[in-house]
Amino acid sequence: MQSALLEPKRVQLPEASASEDLAELERAWSNPRGIIGWLSHVDHQSIGKRYIVTAFIFLLFGGVEALLIRLQLARPENKFLGPDLYNQIFTMHGTTMMFLFAVPVMEGMGIYLVPLMIGTRNVPFPRLNSFGYYLFVIGGIFLYAGFLLNIGPDAGWFSYVPLAGPAFSPGKRVDFWAQMITFTEFSGLIAAVELIVTVFKMRAPGMSLDRIPLFVWGMLVQSFMVVFAMPAVMIASTFLLMDRTLGTHFFNPAEGGDPLMWQHIFWFFGHPEVYIIFIPALGIVSSIVTAFTRKSIFGYTAMVLSLVATAFIGFGLWVHHMFATGLPPLGASFFTSASMMIAIPSGVQIFCWLATLRNGTVRITVPLLFVFGFVFIFVLGGLTGVMVASVPFDLQAHDTFFVVAHFHYVLIGGSVFPLLGAIHYWFPKMTGRMMSETLGKITFWVVFIGFNLTFFPMHLLGLKGMPRRVYTYQPNLGWGALNLVATVGAVIIAIGGAIFIANVIISYKSGEMANGNPWGASTLEWGTTSPPPHYNFLYLPTVNGREALWSRSDDDPVVTGVRTDRRESLSTSILDARPDHRYPLAGPSIWPFITALAVTFGFIGSVFKGSLIFYGAGLSLVALIGWFWPRPSHNEQPERVEKGATESNDQVVARS
Amino acid sequence: MTRSSPALDVAHLPTVAFTGRSPLWWGAVGLIAIEASMFALFIASYFFLRMRVDVWPPPGVNVPRLFLPTVNLGIMILSCIPAYLASEAAKRSDPAGMKLWLLINILLALITVAIRWQVWNSLNYTGYSNAYGSIVFIILGFHMFDYVAGILASIVIVAALLAGHAGEQVRKSVDFDSYTWYFVVAIWIPLYLVIFVSPLVPKR
Amino acid sequence: MSFATTKSTKLAVVLTPAILCQCGCRGIQSALDPAGPQSRSISGHWWLLFWVCTVVFVLVVGFMLYGLWRSKIQTPNDAPVDPAKETRTTWYVSACVVATVVILFVFLVASLSTAKTIFSKPGGKPLEIEVTGHQWWWEVRYPDPDSSKIVVTANEIHIPAGQPVHILLKSADVIHSFWVPKLQGKMDLIPMHSNSLWMQADFPGVYRGQCAEFCGHQHAHMSFLVIAEPLADFNQWRDQQIQSGPPPADPVLRKGQHVFLSSSCVLCHTLRGTTASATLAPDLTHFASRHTIAAGTLSNDRASLERWIVNSQGVKPGNKMPPNDLNPEDLQNLLSYLGSLK
Question: Are A93 and A507 in contact (CB under 8 A)?
Fold first, then answer.
């Protein structure tokens, strides 16, 4: 049932062929049933939603861990959690949020939205996409298995050596952390390659580079960052695992190794990591601002260049995490300059959004409220970031609650607020139902107030001398009142989170039905039904302007000639998106799941016995053969040409 | 009710494409970028550790003579030629050509693996001796892993060819295989220089 | 280039106490309550950053609120672009970007200038101190070319007020970080690396420091005190610390020493002047002259000491000192003995 307002434009060829195409597409793109069937899904909507839901579950775990931390710190010399459990909990909190929530949720948003936004049917390597998801969820389960068995990692989310090394963290604890990294980083790299190739080669005809939506640019830039940054953490965690389980000496100063090398390699990943989390959120903000100001974002080129500049500069900042390690002052000041300089592209983006808001006609909805929250919180966090970029100030603020405040402001303000806005915004597209505006507004205000109450006092706590990662503190230091306020704020955030979850559940069951484009937005995902069919579009669209749906006219053609009896899409050229060839897409397959199990055997086994990695590799080889062995359906068949298309090439076809 | 609309028909377009036009090629480029980043970081780690000590390689370590590794490098580069010829055979859909050139490539590659093994055994230290050993062996080990994985992939593709499959998917696989092979050989050049040549300029 | 710092420092020094005393910036461990030239320089730099950033924040958020407040009725299609408005907007946005660059440049210059102040060797002959970080206590050593004049103590650093101090930082195990917020920024102690920092307390006082790099279980209880004294008092303290006293005359104290020397204490602790010379744990020769026990965890009084000796795991779980099961008489004698080690 579609509402009368804002009907998506629907185009059909003569009715007979359209319904036959539709039936064939439904058949070719249907998903198999049962558990095996569910494990075999390879369409990007399934995989994207799985990433998002799983990531939100990990967000819940990370949130509970945060609450436990705050409860322990509410009073000086509190006895709620002892040091062993506390150290595990803050390690799990950081690790969960950074590796199991923030990056996967953005990957998931990208995997779900990008193929729709650029007008194609699926990502180019569907089974690889599925494989990536399984690695992510297995890695998370593995980490939590260790935690629930009380042998969870307890050396912090960045696990500095020598503390995390074999001498000072004996046993398996840190090994769980290090190998979880291998799983999740593999998964992140896979998603990144998928997104890059999707955006390069699968765009709708007419979507030249300067017509790509800013959200897609964000995901593209982020994916490049992932490709160059994540290998660093994989290497670091591999070195650490080898030092711990095999007896190598990468970080052992007695044999020529160096603990500082850990910090360099880790932060070479760790700094780009936060931009990997942040840049997709910038894309989300652009989408929401455009929709609710009825205006293209001001300064498109500047926006794109800012994204790219942020990515580049982001690779040159990592040493600012190491200002207290005794660096030569001249070298350190280079990183001060770079760390301050990165504020410029971010500033450009903020100014362009503000200009768009000023010049457009604003409609205040829940997604836009979250954008407001983003500006408020992220700008404050960005400013404290400029402060800690200064070496002398950082030498007071580093490793204190000031820095904890800073990064929560930029990460929650910069990523979580846009994400919450994104869920309210795209929920109708994903489920066909609107979320409750009232509950959404309440969610926003509760979370906004709770957030500031929790984290603003931490700036002062840090400056008053409270270091990070302390399970308790003494009463005579004057930190008790601020800590209590922060804990109250955390409880308020939790309430806001509960309201949000309630909104999601209630709306999923009985929210107001949504048509294809309830917001009247401009990007291509709004040009199909809500939720979209598995094949995304009956006929792939073409694009005629930067705001695809707003610049669409009756003369704009749709793509015909793509096969409907098997899964297929269209590959176009990188710069101008001219049709190049038809691209067959893989169908449902259980092999990605089986391969993930084989790889898991190798990764987890090798934590306990090094040689098992070779058995795992052997099993994976067998699984990969099963995956890639040529099958009859992949061989060429005589082409069945669609009814209604003619023999002529590249021409606009006459109407019926 | 029907509304007619113009259509951009693409039925005549092919379904196979190679190199820059192919999404699979770009996927391979992505994989290559990831692996190259990894090896670049290994090299950076090597020099970082070198910077932190006064003597490098550490005393007692014998650097292998250059002869075998250099010969090996030459054979590896040579093995790229049959890889190239196999991908050309794939482009023109020639199963016999694909089989022949892949088999030659595999043979040359196996010879280089044997020579490599010999070189490894001639080193008088292990990955557990000291930081120098650790970084050298992880570089050697990771590259060997990639190398062997490439050979195994070629073997599987030959098996598919011998089983009679020679369609779209196999042709694209042969093409993919060839450019990942070029990468695995090309990345060895800087690694070879770092491990075997740079110690000739020792730090004392 | 000290212009930015000097002017801002003066401004901050004038404004800050007046406006912000109420916010409770004071504290024994507060960076906003500086007591030495290095920390004062950083504090002045902070106030410059703080005020400029506050103004920027208010402007940005203010403009945003203004834009949102102007909500209008939505038109069905994308509004036509007005070229004149677009040009004006381009100028405004560009002006904001230029302003951003200028502000950042000012910050950079201020940062470099402040860095120079806190890293450079102050005038005058510095006192040299070596601090070695252990899991979870601080070994403090005052080196001297005459080995009989070397002072070794733990968790408490005495310095002469008004004189520069150079602290060499080493680690015996994992990475720690030496931080006395009222006096200077922090510096890490890294195994097989040697870092150092400059410090000076302008006036006598007690300044608290704490480890600021997560170092394991009891990172939270790894604090220390820096006690700045007039030079004469400092010299007196130092001379006292160099002594290793004669065996105690009092029978209770002698029994207490005997308990110490025949228990597991000697496996870890040093008592100069006796046979106890292990270095795994703090040197206890002048234990009673210190203000705290267990790296700032407990105050140094008889009741706390008893708690600590009998069951240190209850106070500081996971620390390396085992519980001690002594009979009551031995325990009391030991406490008396330790209480006499001034």
Answer: no
Interatomic CA distance for residues B162 and A114, integer angstroms: 40
Closest-CA residue of chain A to B151: A621
- If contacts are CB pairs under 8 Å, which of residues 213-242 in chain C contact chain A? 213-220
- Which residue among C25, C28, C45 sits closest to A477, beta carbon to beta carbon? C28
ipTM of the assembly? 0.94
Contact assignment for A162 to C191 by CB distance below 8 Å: yes
DSSP C176: E
Q: What's the gap in Å between the CA of A633 and the closest CA on chain B?
A: 10
What is the pTM (predicted TM-score) of this model? Answer: 0.93
CA dihedral A406, A408, A414, A417 (to 10 degrees): -140
Cβ separation of A556 and B6 shorter than 8 Å? yes
Instruction: Give the CA distances from residue A540 to residues A27, A204, A556, A568, C257, in Å, rounded to whole numbers and listed in that order.
Output: 17, 7, 12, 11, 90
What b-and-e string marks burial along A168-199, b requiring 16 or more CB atoms within 10 Å of the CB? Answer: bbeebbbbbbbbbbbbbbbbbbbbbbbbbbbb
Q: Are A561 and A642 in contact (CB under 8 A)?
A: yes
Instruction: Give the residue on A whose Cα is nearest the Cα of C50.
Output: A387
d(CA A614, CA A363) in angstroms, rounded, equals 59
Q: Which chain B positions have a beta carbon within 8 Å of A635's beta carbon?
A: 165, 167-169
Using CB atoms, which residue from A11, A235, A648 is nearest to B3?
A11
pLDDT one-digit tens code per residue, A535-547: 999 999 999 999 9
Residue of chain A nearest C20, judged by CA positions? A460
What is the per-residue pLDDT for C76?
46
Structural domain spans, chain B? 22-200
Q: What is the pLDDT of residues C37-60, one digit of tens each?
A: 999 999 999 999 999 999 999 999
Angle among Cα A60, A65, A71 to the nearest 5 degrees reads: 125
Q: Do A14 and B2 touch (CB under 8 A)?
A: yes
Level-2 CATH architecture, domain B22-200: Up-down Bundle (1.20)
Per-residue pLDDT averaged across A323-334, rounded? 92
Q: Chains with 3 or more CB pairs closer than 8 angstroms to C?
A: A
